[in-house]
């Protein structure tokens, strides 16, 4: 997407914002300072409407109030671990309890020698750790989208090359996870003793267990990651699981 097209899109989408306070919302044209909300300021985005800022777009699934004080900035210095594109978006304070879609936009100059077809969105969690999301890539639109079905705190975004979820450590022919998706219990069939850890999509650890029948009924519907470690040989694998 060319920068002129982005500017046009930004102007069009900003017209969809339902309510904002002119005395507390400052939108600048400087790349390094995309949005400033002063203390007491707020901006309400209606369900299904979009707020486009330089490099990202918020499309909440419920009416969302973006409250100040907060600053959104975009920097052109890539991350080193994980290696990211040359665009990193940061919120000074967490955007809390957000549900809905987030879109991350990039262009060819941002790729930083990464394979474009393998790009995935990464997000920084509350512990300042960057985690990969199972996002949707559109190379024609130069965008990566992820839909947060559960409330999350947004602190930072970028894009990196997809990591391999599984590894050659555990022989997958010896491993079965079922049912997946599941509404309650996830059963694991494996000949050895295991240590299990379940994470949300932001990398937050939700539970650990050594049981092979895991009660997930208390989890909200959504996508999670499960790390399975063979305690005898210290081999592991990471898989996606879906809670209905």
Can you put this structure into words, describing what you see?
There is one protein chain. By secondary structure, the protein is mainly beta. It folds into two domains: 3-161, Chondroitinase Ac, Chain A, domain 3; 172-243, Immunoglobulin-like, CATH 2.60.40.10. It is 5% helix and 49% strand. The chain contains one helix and 20 strands. Strands 2, 3, 5, 6, 8, 9, 10, 11, 12 and 13 form a ten-stranded antiparallel sheet that branches. It has a four-stranded antiparallel sheet with strand order 17-16-19-20, with no helix packed on it. A three-stranded antiparallel sheet has the order 1-4-7, with no helix packed on it. A hairpin with a 5-residue loop joins strand 10 and strand 11. The chain is globular, with a radius of gyration of 20 Å.
List the helices and strands and how they pair.
Layout lengths: L2 H12 L4 E2 L4 E3 L7 E3 L4 E4 L5 E3 L2 E5 L3 E4 L2 E6 L12 E18 L13 E6 L5 E3 L3 E3 L4 E19 L14 E3 L6 E5 L4 E6 L5 E5 L3 E3 L6 E9 L4 E9 L1
Antiparallel strand pairs: 1-4, 2-3, 3-8, 4-7, 5-6, 6-9, 8-9, 9-13, 10-11, 10-13, 12-13, 14-15, 15-18, 16-17, 16-19, 19-20
Structure summary:
Helix content is 5%, strand content 49%. The protein is built from one helix and 20 strands.
Task: Record keyword descriptors for this entry.
244 residues, 4-stranded antiparallel beta sheet, Chondroitinase Ac, Chain A, domain 3
Residues in helix, %: under 10%
Average per-residue pLDDT, rounded, comes to 83
Stated plainly, the CATH topology of the largest domain is called Chondroitinase Ac, Chain A, domain 3
Q: In total, how many domains does the architecture comprise?
A: 2
Instruction: Bin the strand percentage.
Output: over 45%
- Sum up the overall morphology in one term: globular
**Rg for CA atoms:** 20 Å
CATH architecture of the largest domain: Sandwich
Structural class, by secondary structure, is mainly beta
């Amino acid at each position: 997407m060319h920068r002129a097209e982005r500017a046009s899109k930004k102007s069009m989408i900003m017209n969809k914002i339902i309510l904002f306070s002119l005395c507390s919302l400052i939108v600048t044209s400087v790349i390094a300072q995309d949005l400033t909300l002063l203390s007491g300021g707020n901006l309400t985005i209606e369900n299904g409407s979009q707020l486009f800022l330089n490099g990202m777009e918020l499309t909440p699934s419920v009416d969302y109030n973006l409250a100040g004080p907060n600053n959104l900035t975009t920097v052109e210095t890539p991350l080193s671990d994980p290696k990211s594109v040359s665009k990193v978006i940061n919120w000074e304070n967490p955007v809390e309890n957000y549900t809905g879609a987030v879109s991350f936009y990039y262009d060819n100059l941002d790729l930083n020698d990464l394979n474009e077809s393998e790009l995935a969105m990464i997000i920084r969690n509350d512990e300042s750790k960057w985690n990969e999301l199972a996002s949707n890539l559109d190379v024609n639109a130069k965008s990566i989208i992820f839909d947060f079905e559960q409330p999350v705190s947004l602190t930072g975004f970028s894009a990196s090359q997809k990591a391999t979820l599984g590894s050659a450590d555990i022989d997958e022919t010896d491993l079965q996870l079922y049912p997946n998706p599941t509404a309650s219990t996830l059963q694991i069939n494996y000949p050895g003793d295991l240590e299990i850890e379940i994470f949300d999509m932001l990398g937050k650890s939700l539970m650990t267990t050594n049981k092979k029948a895991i009660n997930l009924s208390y989890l909200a519907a959504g996508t999670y990651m499960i790390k399975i470690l063979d305690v005898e040989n210290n081999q592991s694998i990471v898989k996606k699981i879906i809670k209905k």
